[in-house]
Amino acid sequence: GAVVSQHPSRVICKSGTSVKIECRSLDFQATTMFWYRQFPKQSLMLMATSNEGSKATYEQGVEKDKFLINHASLTLSTLTVTSAHPEDSSFYICSVPRGPSTGELFFGEGSRLTVL
Amino acid sequence: GENVEQHPSTLSVQEGDSAVIKCTYSDSASNYFPWYKQELGKRPQLIIDIRSNVGEKKDQRIAVTLNKTAKHFSLHITETQPEDSAVYFCAARTSSGNTPLVFGKGTRLSVIA
To answer: What tens digit of pLDDT does each residue of B50-87 get?
Structure first.
């Protein structure tokens, strides 16, 4: 079964609205989760590292006021795309480290956002 | 930070032939190197991984080699089949701490029947 659950899998919204994407770790607690973005025919690019109980760490070029990350519990991290624009249309995917020293990451199913 | 380069970006092979995809990494602290297969619109699927204490790992038709000195690792697929057609990504990270995976740009593999 799934280890990481992400939803919604698809969302279409109007320009200017906000969209929230949830990422849940189902089988274990996760103090850290990673959010990636993937544009068509491109690789997965790290957007931010979500830290439970503290502020997220954003990669260079990612606007923290536009992509709000909340990691309020050990099993849930949310990404909110605020005031979405068509250029924000992308595949957003979260991942959770399997453990402190294994290396492996579990990925959510991904969320395809289309902003009209 | 880590930087992963991947080549080639596209690869076409005849069914039954072998396919090789190569990656290099920059951070000598990286010790975990997974390979993912991604089909359109879906999440990446781990197909094989290797850690820095191992030079080679094989799983049926798939093998990965790692050269720590040269900081490069490769994916080898033998006896390719049409269902192997997908985008493959290499990645690297350190397994300790909370460091993210850094991905290569991907290789689109087409297996021609």
So the answer is: 998 889 999 999 999 999 999 999 999 999 999 999 99
- Which of A25, A41, A43, A71 is the best mutation test for B, with the most CBs of B within 10 A? A43
Helix, strand, or coil (residue A111): strand
% of chain B residues with pLDDT over 70? 98
**Structural contact between residues A108 and A6, judged by C-beta atoms closer than 8 angstroms:** yes
Q: Cβ separation of A46 and B98 shorter than 8 Å? A: no
Contact B101 A95 (CB under 8 A): yes
Give the model's confidence band at A27: pLDDT under 50 very low, under 70 low, under 90 confident, else very high. Answer: confident
Are the C-beta atoms of residues B80 and B19 closer than 8 Å to each other? yes
Give the pLDDT score at A100.
Answer: 66
Judged by DSSP in three states, B107 sits in strand
Assigned token pair, B13 = 């092979």
Inform me whether the C-beta atom of residue A32 falls under 8 Å from chain B C-beta atoms: yes
Residues of B with Cβ-Cβ distance to A54 under 8 angstroms: none
